Amino acid sequence: MLSEVLLVSAPGKVILHGEHAVVHGKVALAVALNLRTFLRLQPHSNGKVDLNLPNIGIQRAWDVAKLQMLDTSFLKQGDVTALTPEQMEKLKEVAGFPEDCADHEHLAVLSFLYLYLSICQSQRWTEESLELINKWAFQGERVIHGNPSGVDNAVSTWGGALRYQQGKISSLKRPPALKILLTNTKVPRSTKALVAGVRSRLLKFPEIVAPLLTSIDAISLECERLLGEMAAAPAPEHYLVLEELIDMNQHHLNALGVGHASLDRLCQVTMAHGLHSKLTGAGGGGCGITLLRPDLEQPEVEAMKQALTSCGFDCWETSIGAPGVSVHMAASLDPPVRQALDGL
Ligand code: MEV
After folding, report:
1. Residue 74: per-residue pLDDT
2. 33 FRET partner, CA 20 to 30 A, in 65, 90, 269, 293?
């Protein structure tokens, strides 16, 4: 039982290159962002577990006593396995959800309940603990996305910049602190459906789609090589090559069928300001990234953000390579963290 408020956070992430291709065994480059999600764990004496996810409008409560009475033998720590359909049904029953619920809000609550019932809280994270957090996060992802590659949970656990291929993770040493603009088109999409769409296109046109995946793999490897060079001696030419890679990958992703009119709009608006963008993650709406070259003047960035905002998008200026999952002690909160928490 916690005796005081515990604050933990994990970074947001973007995939620089390799989304979708990573599901088919190719390389992905993923980076943690200096935009974090905070979780405040606060002890209560009202006998309830309250879940409050203000950003997606979720507020739920369960009686601790009732949760303790549940048979959770299928959720033992150290035994991190995928939920069977029967276990998933059981979780829905615990949550009081209908059997056919499949929307993001319901799935987010189920993912929380699964993790809550499974995890023993620990404050000091050894490599072993991080491995465990990563495994739990992967299973949480599976509740929502079905069959994820594992790249998203890995980069949010370890932070920094990762190369990920078929479960094999290596950290890029000293990644350059690239600045990017993260833009949310606010168009909802289902990662599960988009991943399935790419798979069926691959099955339908193997001779056409397999080379696209191979080319995306080569883009990720070239980007990794370039980031290594930039760490040693960054030069303006590096940014030009990064921009070319972004454009080529965006075209490939469109050819895989995961583009969207909102993402085309995002690319056009940033291109009008001389900047290059690509979708990040599953596509079909969702988010895009724009590389902010170091020679850019701030008024130019502000003008572009204004243009994107008037399309109905949300934007955040951020940088890559943030720390992974972290515990923040309430006593040592710095002002930006306090500010972020005011919204919780
Ligand atoms: C989603 O963020 C990234 C995808 O490659 C799916 C996955 O890797 O699980 C589209």
Report:
1. 56
2. 269
Tokens of 73: 């033998």
Q: What is the DSSP string of 201-225?
A: HHHH-HHHHHHHHHHHHHHHHHHHH
CA of 48 to the centre of ligand 1 (A): 35
Spatial CA neighbour of 9 closest among 56, 50, 41: 41
Q: From the first residue on, what is the mean pLDDT of each consecutive set of 10 residues in the chain (344 residues)?
A: 78 96 96 92 81 88 70 57 77 82 86 74 69 94 91 95 95 89 96 96 98 98 95 92 98 98 98 98 98 96 98 96 79 55 52
3-state SS assignment for residue 322: coil
Q: What per-residue confidence (pLDDT) applies to 77?
A: 47
DSSP letter at 172 equals: P
Distance CA 307, CA 303 (A): 6
- In the DSSP assignment, the letter for residue 330 is G
- Contacts of residues 238-244 at CB distance under 8 Å and 24 or more positions apart, as own/partner, are 239/291, 239/293, 239/294, 242/178, 242/291, 243/276, 243/291
Output the CA 199–ligand 1 centroid distance in Å.
12
Positions marked active-site: 152
Backbone φ and ψ of 234, nearest 5°: -70, 140
- Burial of 57 (C-beta count, 10 Å sphere; 0-12/13-18/19+): exposed
Note the Cα 159 to chain centre separation in Å. 11
Confidence at residue 331, expressed as pLDDT on a 0 to 100 scale? 46
| Domains of the chain in sequence order | 6-171+326-342 (3.30.230.10), 176-319 (3.30.70.890)
Nearest ligand 1 atom to alpha carbon 152: 2
- Closest Cα to atom 2 of ligand 1: 281
* Cβ of 153 below 6 Å from ligand 1: no
Q: Rounded distance, CA 53 to CA 39, Å?
A: 9
